[in-house]
Amino acid sequence: MIENKTREKEDEGMASNSRRDFLKKSSVITAIALTPVAAVKASDLKLDERLSEAIEQMSLSIEINGQQYNLKVEPRLTLLDLLRERLKLTGTKKGCDQGQCGACTVHVDGVRTNSCLSLAVMNDGAKVTTIEGLANGHELHPMQEAFIKHDGFQCGYCTPGQIMSAVACIHEGHANSETEIREFMSGNICRCGAYANIVNAIREVKAGGKV
Amino acid sequence: MSKKHLENADMELAMSRVDGRVKVTGAAKYTAEVQLPELTYGVLVESTVGQGVITSIDTKKAEWAPGVIAVISHLNTPGVPEYKLQNQDVIQKQLRVFNDANVYFNGQPIAVVVADTLERAQYGASLVKVTYSKEKSFSNLKDNIARAIVPKKAKADPKGMTSDFIRGRAEAYKDAEFQVNEEYIQPSEAHHPMELHSIIATWDAEDKLTLVDKTQGSQQTAASIAKSFQLPAENVKVLSTYVGGAFGSALRVWPHEIVAILAAKKVQKPVKLVLHRNQMSYMVGYRPYTLQKVAIGASKDGKILGLSHESYGKTSMYEEFTENVLIMSRMMYDIPNVDTKYRIVPLNVSTPAPMRGPGEATGSFALECAIDELSYKLKMDPIELRLVNYAAQDPDKKIPWSSNFLKECYQLGADKIGWNKRKAEPDSIQDGEWKVGYGVATGTFGAFRNAASVKATFKPDGTLLLQSAIADIGPGTATSMTAIAAKNLGIQPENIAFQLGNSTFPKAPMQGGSNTVATVGSAVVATCDNLKVELAKRAAKQKPEWNNAIPKNISIVGTQLVNSDEPSSKVEIASLFKEDNLSELVIKGDAAPGEESKKYSFYSFSVHFIEAHVHELTGVVRIKNAVSVIDCGTVVSPKTARSQSMGGIVGGIGMALMEDVVIDDRTGRTVTASFGDYHVPVQADIPQMEMMFVNEKDPYLNPMGSKGLGEIVIIGVAPAVANAVYNATGKRVRHLPITPDKLI
Ligand code: FES
Ligand code: FES
Questions:
Q1: What pTM was estimated for this model as a whole?
Q2: Residue A114 belongs to a domain
Q3: According to the model, what pLDDT value does residue B12 have?
Q4: Which domain of life is it from (chain A) (predicted)?
């Protein structure tokens, strides 16, 4: 009834303590499952699903905007939903949930990443920066300043993703010309059409050398 | 004469958005981000057939899945009371959510799974098994044109834009020496604002609802929901503080909103329901696929003698959607003989919705391409052709324009783009492997004004809070309203706050149809004037000369109230609160349109110029330069107005070159639902652009001298692109989008 094989496979590559955790719990379930009457009843009432709910939590240790989090999460939870739904860090946006719009862009160990395409548990031990962690206290990041000055947005929904992408674009060395910026910022859709202003903001920050 | 018009450089340094900081720091909370205790998550189950009847819904597995609280469908819905009433509006018949087993389109919401986390609700929804008795579905307009009907609206309003219309003679184009007679197709286009449509529904009591909802009209949504659930109007509160774009998709209540409210009733907890990106292409409206036939005839000198224009648009099986596709053909040019015919074709699709420049954007594509085609037949410059047919007054209503600076628009834009570089003969400019062409087209949209009120709270420290129920879907409403108040009162913008998006705030219309500045701005002016009168009354108790002060001359300078007529009569603001020990002054102001629309015809105008480069081997089109010149009256907030116009060009480029909701007619399923298949312009598609505003006041619409902007910035862009592509290649594409396959 319990598919230990698949579970173990999923378990591979995960932190060793979560593996121990899992084995402990799974033996409890095996004990229940081995009682024939209980097994039938459990299956009838779909108790197996109820039990698996209790065990399908994995440990995740992650640093977000300088703060350390030690969490238990379901393996199917995305980094984006971890941020938005569990940690209430709603600055990172969900625009498509399938890697096609860039609204969910965050920095994972300094690299821009679509957080909707990354499972939270894949980021164990990682350092994540979101839009909430970009400013230095009350002092805005130069890219945030430049977006305000050049009006690099209208509705503002794509904006956190654009800004995180823009900062990374300069760090990567992909902001040397207008054409290059356009190419390397093309993963971030702005339906309000603030593209030209976004380019101008990035060019100014790049020229100022403040990133 | 000093230059009045505005160019990029004049506008880039203007006042920045007042909500810039919250938007660049991620602090702005959009609908799905509002935190409520005991929140649950709803995920929709959709029909997988285009037409038929549900024969069974097996929810057992879903109900037993971990974390699932409820599965709701037509079998166990708490019900929408309005559905039981007789005499419902027959034209606007919304899809009746979970009302029965009928399926009208593929993707129709037929059940919802509510769980304690999003993942569990999603998984639960995947476990619901549905069987159907499937019927043949019809989703292709061309194949089903025989099903076209005259909309009920036309019968109800025989003078309206959807009724058959003749000015002069019908089909007079046939008698003209030079003729164009063609068919144009605008495919369905999805709004796809970046923020997904979302709602959080909470029943505060048996008869009391609070909705955090993505809407373009908090009060209109509240009223519609109150009607559906038969609740007292004041018992429905709607909040939409930040709206991440909409473009028309949030102008009405959609099924998923009703679903969330039903679900919240069932589970007795707040339910959050966020649409998936793919659902955004068929659950919240779209610009409908429209086939148009335009025939136009002119004499040798370019004078147009006759214009015939027919339109066939998609609508759903349960509701009639109409829009003003034909209005521009009736009023834009001085043509003696015009006839129009408007039809809709009910199909197994969801109901369309107004999308930015609704109707007019579709109509202008056909009309402005046909005019361009005529210019080549006449061997006449297309700007010249438009000027020959310039209407000195509204030929439809036969009254003067309130203001019309189209001629200035043509001139300014032609100079800016370098129209003299254009060759009259198509396919004559080559730049390496690229063919180069120039195109122009005109746009227009009615300039409207509605009634609104604003509440002001003024404090002794000189700070001002203004409140209105209006939404801000992106143009920067708080910014333009702050600019209007700052200008009127003399207060620094940083001392003004403008709050919006709350149905309990003073009355405002929906944000749609480019009416916000004219409507709410007028109420801001009225409120500021009322505030000045009240302050002067109070000042008069200290210095009697204030009795004669008129609002126009009163301003707030630093901490003082000043009358420019009597500079010596200054008083300290704080002192005006002392006598009755007030901590704040609360003032309301109302504004409504008068009789002006009987005397004048109100329209905004735009002229768009495009330089297109077409790759000769691959057929790829690149927009190299775009210039829009806009007559929207006085520009209230230049920086945001410029951005809004650029957004219009971007939307128009999408419409012209890539956007296409494709339906598999065998199943009725949308195949271009995701951004992977439904292409919208990205950064690499968009050049630097020049936005220009004539910036001449409209004397009659409102005290600011403004007209509307949000629609005219996209209306006319797609035909300008199509015309530029023709000029570059000699290939006329009359079926949007202009994809490379149509050019090679
Ligand atoms: S939400 Fe991640 S790319 Fe769109
Ligand atoms: S600012 Fe609205 S989508 Fe970019």
A1: 0.94
A2: yes
A3: 83
A4: Bacteria
